[in-house]
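Q: Fold this one first, please.
A: Sequence and structure below.
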Amino acid sequence: MSRLFSAYVIVDWSAASKAATGTDCVSIGVLKRDVRFRLAFDSFTTTTRAEAEKRLGLILEDLKKRNEKAFIGFDFPLGFPTGLAPALKLTTEPRWRAVWNWLDKMVKDKVDNTNNRFGVAAEINRRVTDGPFPFWGCAPRDTLTTLQPKKTRDHGEGDLPEMRLTDIAAKTGRSIWKLYYAGSIGGQTILGIPAVSRLKAAKADAMKIWPMETGWQTLTPAELDGVDLVVAEVDPMAAKANPAPGEAKAIAQLRALAEQFAKLDEAGKFGELFAAPKGVDEASLAIAQTEEGWILGS
């Protein structure tokens, strides 16, 4: 079987509120073939999300000119725990897209990284519970009636789930509702989904979101006819990375994951990762496809 992709792009997103340096930068790792058809890795770090979107656009434009298909992995969830759309009284289907559209309208993310992620989270809390739940975590200066620095209570019966099914299966320990402090992913998700949504709007049917748009199936070249890009959630921390001399650990993780995917693709096995994960029941698969998303390879 021929390989599915010519390039593997892994993105480490950021929720920084100002132009960032170090670990708060957005990092993009690109593994693609050079003029001699050998895989070569390159990386980019940007101080703002706007710069990252521009850089990603240039990368994809170059691949398009070369008529090469690309896989793009983002390190944040592409969906929220089941039930958020109806809790927000969003009635359009599918539910994941309804939430994306709502975030597109609500999120304000300026070119200098100034953003309203805390305000958006507070508004979600107001609409869902009229209190500081389920989102939590912010600096004291960002405290609002419906958003508190600390978690105010545990999730109980009748609440939105604390974690997505994929986080439970992968034992990540990550809750999307945590907005601030070490290990938080809520801010990246609120700011990241609109960026992916803009990319989807630009690429239309030439880009497919996994598993929401692809469904649960082993991908083959035939399935990707007319498709330039496949986007999925990934976990760079899952890759075993050995940094090269002078290489930052975060960049090494992007490289290691891209190399892992490329190796599977060369062996004709990468497409298998897009099929339904083993041991997951049909009801859970339906929730993941229509609302929550899934971490590729978990």
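Q: Good. Now the second chain.
A: Here it is, same layout.
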Amino acid sequence: MVAGSRAHTLDARAIEEGDTSKTGSDLYGIRFPPTHVDQVLEGKEMRFDFEGGFLQGLHTPGHTPGSISLYIDRGVRILFGQDIHGPFMARFGSDINQWRISMKELLKLDADILCEGHFGIYRSKEAVREYIMGYIRMYAG
């Protein structure tokens, strides 16, 4: 059953300590209280079982060291990709080179739908690919 809080081991400490700088909450003028992480995730791939199915998790570092992306197959592949667009800040532990590798991994998933946490839903393989490629081109270096 998918319940409780989860975070990759590389981001869990900032969450548990309520680090307003590393979590970015100070950018929004809010306090991030120390929050217990029920399950610390490790490795490159993970699976979250729930009644009737499961979500796949993929460690996608770049925005933060412990960024993860989720996807599910339900006749179509739906990708949940938070902060694909960045931002990239030293205080987050961002690494643009790791991000580029992560974006290539997301492209390999060949998702039909992307639910991006800030900029909406993209509803075709072509739209998903173009969204990700647009940021790869933007941050080419």
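Q: Anything worth noting on the second one?
A: The domain at 43-138 is CATH 3.60.15.10 (Metallo-beta-lactamase; Chain A).
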